[in-house]
Amino acid sequence: MIKVSVIIPVYKVEKYIDRTISSCQSQTLIEIEIIVVNDGSPDNSKTIINKKALEDNRIIAIHKENGGVTSARNTGLAIAKGKYVFFLDGDDYIEDDALAKLFSIAEQNKADYVFGNFIIEYENSLQNYEMVFPSFTVINNITFLKYCFENTFFYITGCLINKEIMQKCKLDIPNDITFGEDNIAITQMAWNMQCAAYYNGIVLHYVQRNESVTNSINLNNVAQRAKACMLTVDYAVKQRFYNSIKPEIDYFMSKEQVSFILYGYWSDELSKYCTPSVLLQPKICLKLGAKRVFILLGIFISPTFTSKVYDFLRMIKRFRQ
Question: What 8-state DSSP symbol labels residue 286?
Answer without folding.
Answer: H
